[in-house]
Amino acid sequence: MSSDRFRVLRQRLMEKLDLARELSDQEILEEIDDLLLNGMRESALSLKEKVQLRQELFYSVRKLDVLQELIDDDSVTEIMVNGPDNIFVERAGKLKKWEKGFTSREKLEDVIQQIVGKCNRVINESMPICDARLENGARVNAVIRPVALEGPILTIRRFPDTPITMEKLISLGSLPPECAQFLAMLVKARYSMVIGGGTGSGKTTFLGALSNYIPKDERLITIEDRATEDGDTVIIDFDGYVDGKQFEGGYAEDYTLVLGSHSFIDNFEDQLVGKNLGEDVEVNVTFPEEYHVDELKGKPALFKVKIKEIQKKELPELDDDFAQDVSDFDTLDEYKADVEKKILENKENQIKREQEDQIIEKIIENAQMEIPQQMIAAQTRQMTQEFAQRLQSQGLSLEQYMQFTGLTPQKMMEDLEPQALKRIQSRLVLEAVVAAENIEASDEEIDKELENMASMYQMEIDKLKELIGDDEKKQIGMDLAVQKAVEFVVKEAVEK
């Protein structure tokens, strides 16, 4: 949607609204729907574009104007506004200028006042700078006149609701699986690690991914009334000596060590078992011959160790209380049954999809089709756009993905082309089955699909039906018929 079209429609909307009284959200939406239905009959916009336009117009009147779309986008980590026409957005550490802007300087100032007001703060000419924190934890910084000479400045620093996982980092090529496995062992063994890097390099993101390796089904209990046991976690200070002299790397304070993890050399950990809180222990060990430091290879060493804290890992009991803590069920038996049911359903769905793919591939092998290269190219471009949208929902741009993987746009298109060809072939053979078997989607099935779409778009079903075009409705019917064709060919193949 062009910014010019939006500005024109917003102006027409503001002329229609009775701003002399407080309008409800429903009243504003009704005016927007009337504007879209009666004022854009000749427009060739798709349903998706109309819904987006409807949402943006509503946001411009009721919520945070053009910023609302960015606020609702989980992939956005930072929003920087430098005047009404300069909005910059950060996704996955990459900064880009946004194509949208505020209609006026005054509108931007109104939005800033809304944001600051939600934080129970004040911003005006006598106090032109405001730092605050929103309910969702986002940090806000706003600057207005007279400090901001070129127009109001607003920065919103967000934190993702769904932090990036180590699995996602692996899939992006940020680190190999072997490295992730090694890091997981270090975390579980409670080793100390230092994470460094420049601004925006992903230190916090990586730390968050590492934290997912911390066991969530356990807690540490501080022990004060007994000696250390195998499996305990101890907090220690240690100082190492070889030939009566301290050696580099042999000193540490507040070191976390799991007894029995074998993370220290020789029988170091064994000598700490049976010791008490606050006790000073002398530990004698011998460095292995293959030790990585030449000066220490095969050398006997003395470590002076002080036990500062003893902790015990406590796993929860598998009982009804546990089920209530981790699920919506009241009993452990109900929780187990639900887990078993979901595992079985996932397996059945996987088998079903594999069966469908195999049958459709057989049909394609026996079919004769000539697919124009232009059609394959168009499908490939569409699949690329779909992939980019999925990446964006995960907080990553397509450009950044290519940087991580070393792919070029041309190589990506080449890799997707066989999949695009298969998708076209599958669609054509299934549409042929639809025609041959006179498969149709009933009005009830189409209405149910429209209800699902209305729920997804958060619209009333009647409003969505008004916005949808005849061609789009026919396409929905064909999509449902194709799915029924899949069920038909699978049933026929199984029976034969």
Describe this structure in words.
Helices cover 48% and strands 17% of the residues. By secondary structure, the protein is α+β, with helices and mostly antiparallel strands. It folds into five domains: 1-62, no CATH class; 65-162, Beta-Lactamase, CATH 3.30.450.370; 166-211, no CATH class; 219-314, Chitinase A, domain 3; 332-495, Trigger factor, C-terminal domain (Trigger factor, domain 2, Orthogonal Bundle). It has a six-stranded antiparallel β-sheet with strand order 3-2-1-6-5-4. A hairpin with a 4-residue loop joins strand 1 and strand 2. The longest helix has 35 residues, at 332-366. The model has no long low-confidence stretch (mean pLDDT 80).
CATH topology of the largest domain: Trigger factor, domain 2
**What structural class should be given to the helix and strand makeup?**
alpha+beta
Unreliable residue runs = none
- H/I helix tally: 16
**Quick check: average pLDDT?**
80
Roughly what percent helix? 40-55%
CATH architecture grouping of the largest domain: Orthogonal Bundle
Strand order of the largest sheet: 3-2-1-6-5-4
Regarding CATH, which class of the largest domain? Mainly Alpha
Domain module tally = 5
For the CA atoms, what is the radius of gyration? 31 Å
**Main beta sheet strand tally, sense and closure:** 6 strands, antiparallel
| SS elements, strand count | 11
End-to-end Cα distance, whole Å, is: 51 Å
Net shape: extended
Q: What is the CATH superfamily of the largest domain?
A: Trigger factor, C-terminal domain
